[in-house]
Amino acid sequence: MDKLPTFSALTHEFKHLFKRQEVAAKTILLREGETAKQAFYIKKGCLRICFNNNGKDITFQFFFEQEFVSSIESFKTNQPSLFTIESIEPSVIYSISKRNFNTIMESSKTIKQQVEEYTFHRLVYYQKLFLSRIKDNPELRYRELLKQNPKIIQRIPQHYIASFLGITSVSLSRIRNRR
After folding, report:
1. What pLDDT score was predicted for residue 11?
2. 85 — phi, psi (to 5°)?
3. Which one, of 113, 109, 108, 90, lies nearest residue 17 by Cα?
4. How far apart, in Å, are the Cα atoms of 164 and each of 9, 58, 99, 138, 149?
5. What is the tally of helices (H) and strands (E) in the chain?
6. What are the mean pLDDT values of the chain's consecutive 10-residue runs (179 residues total)?
7. Residue 135 domain-assigned (yes or no)
8. CA 97/CA 76 separation, integer angstroms
């Protein structure tokens, strides 16, 4: 997947628009139902997006170093976020307000184009994820996860991986033991 400009590429001209934060593991950066007022760049650590489904915590995606994350639909439309953003590990992040983000978009056509392309690629990723949930069995989803993003298996607690795959931790243990 294409990446947004690296943070170091942004820092030369726009560093003053970002706020550095160190957050502990299990820190909520945005709660489901709140309006997103910031986007986050991950310098170090790991974040997840999740939502509540009838009292059950469902992990939808993981984000690692050199990735940006926000509730894009909330950030752009001022509507309540459909999910929570939470740190999994102690993390160093840089946050940017909507106003400052818009300043960058207005100041640089190149960055704006890269953000639009990245957003399109995220949409394609979500479509693939959605279709995989419908057509692939959990073991195939796990094998694809190993192939496409092995750092998830190395860094993420098993219960979050199981939630991401749409299975229980016990089922995930069985799949891992068959390998």
Report:
1. 53
2. -110, 125
3. 108
4. 32, 7, 32, 10, 13
5. 8, 8
6. 51 83 98 96 96 92 92 92 97 96 89 85 86 90 90 92 92 86
7. no
8. 11
40 token code pair: 């986050």
Q: Work out the number of other CB atoms within 10 angstroms of the CB of residue 44.
A: 13
Q: Which residue in this structure is represented by tokens 């199981």? A: 162
- For 121, residues 6+ apart whose C-beta sits below 8 A from its C-beta are 1, 2
Q: Which domain holds residue 29?
A: 7-108
Q: Is 159 part of any domain?
A: no
**113 assigned to some structural domain:** no
- Quote the Cα angle for 148-149-150, to 5°: 115
Classified as helix, coil or strand, 76 is: helix
Cα 172 → chain centroid: 22
Q: Looking at the 3D structure of the chain, how many domains does it have?
A: 1
Give the domain CATH number at 26: 2.60.120.10
User: Which pLDDT does position 1 carry in this prediction?
Assistant: 43
Give dist(CA 43, CA 57) in Å, integer: 26
